[in-house]
Structures are given as structure tokens and as C-alpha cells.
């Protein structure tokens, strides 16, 4: 036996794959320490993140590529930014995200094709400034969806086709948006038909927030059920996942996944963050709140957030046969859309310095 082999036999096996303390407890090996979110969840579902073009360089870029295997454009593919004028498309930002995803072999979700917010005003008006007819608006919607979906059909596997069409008020079914005022509910089905015609392979989602609110959830369920029964090409429901330390409950989340998947639809969490403040965060910014820049990320914020994330991912793992993707809405606490609500929020797994928070380890240690 040569000297090298005898040395190997003499070394405890624990030291070959990790570090051992004096008490014999094995410390996590270096190879395990380098595992990322996407690695821990490779047998469950893709883990995505919403990005902006400026995040595709430097430290943000490194964190994206290391931790995630799916991307969503936070704003660059929305109707207003990508189609600011009827005869003018702005492709640069969206193209850069699509190219980045392809370069790094990442899945790409399209977000979104039809929404009441960030829709350009020209879409609803004629050259005289009068409201257009239903026929004109539907043709404009078709032209927009066809052009955008065809451009990215070799990059994007699925689209949020219609976003937030259901009203938050219990007594009102559809949101009274410009789309609805002019077209009634017909624009919803038409949007899915246009997207499917442009890319028959794309997975098509209805996407909304507060999908765990029982009354809003029931309206969404009835709408997507009606679409399915009418033969409209809808394939999934996106639970936005703008949640908080006290919302949703375990029972609400489980019920939402069960209800939508019972229709034969995929379920994805499309815009995940957990606010350190209580309440239903929804999808809307609240204007006029006092900006509080003095409060940092405190233990009082951290503990309930950790518990909520543990609950959420426990439920998602249990339903891995129904969940086909989870996407965080923004990368780190350095910048999040929730900061626009009037106070600094810390809703993600990475801190303001892009380092893993304790909650990161709660999510991956299972």
C-alpha cells in the first residue's frame, strides 16, 4: 500500500466531506454551502426573480445567475413601456432581459399582455381624443399581443396574459377598467385567444393578487372556470404572492392551490414577497403614507417574517405536483417595489447588501 492510500484510510470519512467539531458534530461542507435556491428546489419547481435591465450587470447579475433559474421582467414587457405609441415599440429593455435569460439558460416568464395599469392612453382614444369602439380596441389589443408574443416565442415559455381583472370589492365582479368599460368581459377571453394564436406552445396564465381572500378567490375561480368551459386557452393561475407577516393563513393558501388546480390549471406564485408590516399588501401602491427611513430591519420584523416564509414554502413543497414555478418580486431588500408604499420594507431573502438573511436558510433547510 503506498503512502497516499494509507493517508486516505487514516482520514475519517466525515473530514473528506465536511468539517468535524471536537464533539463529533459535522459542520456543513463547502460543497453544500455553495448550493443555491435553485439547487435546493431542483426537484420541486423553478425559482425565479423579477429583474430590471440595470440588474443584468455587476453584483446583482452575479446573484441572479447563482441563485435563480427563471426570470420575469418587472416592467420592461408591460404594455406601456414596450408599446408607448401605436406605431412605436420600444424593444431594448425587454430584449436585454430575454438575451440574458437565453445566455444563462434560464426560463423566462412574460409579464404581462393586458392590464388596466401601465396601459398607454393612446390605446383607448382615437385621433380626436374620443373613446374608441370595442372593435377598434380589440383590434389594437390583438395587434399588440401578436407582435409581442411572436417576437419572444423562442425565449418565453409562458405569459401572464390578463392581469388583475377582478375587482377588490365584494359586491363587484369585474374591475371597472377602461378595458371593461369599452369591451365588457370579452377582452379577457380575446386576450387569451390572441396569445395562443401567436404562440400555441406558450403556457397562458391569469394573474392576480389577494387570491387567498375567500370572496375574491371565488370570483377568480368562477371566471377561470367559465373560460375553461368555453374552450378558451387558459393554462394556469398566478398567485401574485404579495403577502405579509399575517397574510395569508395556512388554510387560505392551501385552499387557493386546491381550488385552482382542481380545474386542471397550473398554479404559480408569480410575485413573491413577504412584507414585514401586517395587512394584505395587494398589488397597488398606497400613496401619501409617511416615509420612515429611520427604522432598520429589526428582530421584531425578522421573526414573524421567518415563520411566514417557512409556512409558505412548506405548503408549496407539499403541493409540488400542482406548483410549476415560484418567482420572487425583486432580488434583494436593497430595492423592492414595496419601498414605494411610503416606508422601507425588507420583504425578500437577501438583505440590502445582497447577503442571505436568516430567512433564506429557513427556506432551504428542509
CATH architecture of the largest domain: Alpha-Beta Barrel
CA(first)-CA(last) distance: 42 Å
> Poorly predicted ranges (pLDDT <50, ≥5 residues)?
1-31, 284-291
**How would you state the average pLDDT, rounded?**
90
Contiguous helical run count: 14
Taken as a percent bin, the fraction of beta residues is: 15-25%
Could you say what the CATH topology of the largest domain is called?
TIM Barrel
The biggest beta sheet is recorded as: 8 strands, parallel, barrel
Q: Could you tell me the radius of gyration in angstroms?
A: 23 Å
Whole-number total of structural domains: 2
Helix and strand arrangement:
Elements: H1 3-10, H2 13-17, E1 19-20, E2 26-27, H3 30-33, H4 37-40, E3 47-51, H5 58-67, E4 70-73, H6 79-82, H7 92-103, E5 107-115, H8 134-151, E6 158-163, H9 178-183, H10 186-198, E7 203-208, H11 214-229, E8 236-239, E9 242-244, H12 250-261, E10 266-275, H13 299-318, E11 323-328, H14 358-364
Parallel strand pairs: 3-4, 3-11, 4-5, 5-6, 6-7, 7-8, 8-10, 9-10, 10-11
Antiparallel strand pairs: 1-2
Helix pairs in contact: 8-10, 13-14
In short:
This protein is an alpha/beta fold. It is built from 14 helices and eleven strands. Strand 10 (266-275), helix 13 and strand 11 form a beta-alpha-beta unit.
Amino acid at each position: 500500500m503506498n503512502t497516499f492510500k494509507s493517508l486516505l484510510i487514516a482520514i475519517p470519512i466525515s473530514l473528506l466531506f465536511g468539517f468535524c467539531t471536537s464533539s463529533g458534530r459535522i459542520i456543513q461542507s463547502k460543497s453544500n454551502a455553495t448550493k443555491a435556491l435553485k439547487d435546493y428546489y431542483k426537484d420541486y419547481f423553478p425559482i425565479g426573480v423579477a429583474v430590471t435591465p440595470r440588474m443584468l450587470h455587476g453584483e446583482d447579475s452575479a446573484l441572479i445567475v447563482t441563485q435563480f433559474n427563471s426570470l420575469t421582467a418587472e416592467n420592461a414587457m408591460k404594455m406601456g413601456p414596450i408599446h408607448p405609441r401605436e406605431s412605436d415599440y420600444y424593444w431594448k429593455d425587454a430584449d436585454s432581459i430575454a438575451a440574458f435569460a437565453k445566455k444563462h439558460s434560464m426560463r423566462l416568464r412574460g409579464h404581462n399582455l393586458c392590464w388596466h395599469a401601465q396601459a398607454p392612453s393612446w390605446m383607448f382614444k382615437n385621433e380626436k381624443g374620443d373613446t374608441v369602439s370595442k372593435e377598434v380596441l380589440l383590434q389594437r389589443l390583438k395587434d399588440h399581443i401578436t407582435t409581442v408574443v411572436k417576437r419572444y416565442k423562442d425565449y418565453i415559455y409562458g405569459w401572464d396574459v390578463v392581469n388583475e381583472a377582478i375587482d377588490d370589492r365584494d359586491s363587484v365582479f369585474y374591475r371597472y377598467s377602461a378595458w371593461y368599460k369599452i369591451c365588457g368581459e370579452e377582452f379577457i377571453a380575446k386576450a387569451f385567444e390572441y396569445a395562443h394564436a401567436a404562440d400555441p406552445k406558450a403556457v397562458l396564465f391569469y394573474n392576480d393578487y389577494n387570491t387567498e381572500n375567500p370572496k375574491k378567490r371565488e370570483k377568480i375561480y368562477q371566471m377561470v372556470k367559465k373560460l375553461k368551459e368555453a374552450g378558451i386557452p387558459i393554462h394556469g393561475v398566478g398567485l401574485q404572492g404579495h403577502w405579509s407577516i399575517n397574510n395569508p393563513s395556512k388554510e387560505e393558501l392551501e385552499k387557493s392551490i386546491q381550488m385552482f388546480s382542481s380545474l386542471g390549471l397550473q398554479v404559480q406564485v408569480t410575485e413573491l414577497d413577504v412584507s414585514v408590516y401586517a395587512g394584505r399588501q395587494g398589488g397597488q401602491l398606497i400613496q401619501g403614507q409617511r416615509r420612515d427611513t429611520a427604522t432598520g430591519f429589526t428582530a421584531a420584523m425578522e421573526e414573524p417574517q421567518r415563520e411566514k416564509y417557512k409556512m409558505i414554502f412548506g405548503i408549496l413543497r407539499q403541493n409540488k405536483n400542482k406548483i410549476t414555478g415560484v418567482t420572487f418580486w425583486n432580488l434583494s431588500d436593497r430595492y423592492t417595489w414595496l419601498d414605494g408604499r411610503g416606508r422601507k420594507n425588507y420583504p425578500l431573502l437577501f438583505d440590502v447588501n445582497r447577503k442571505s438573511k436568516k430567512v433564506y436558510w429557513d427556506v432551504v433547510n428542509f
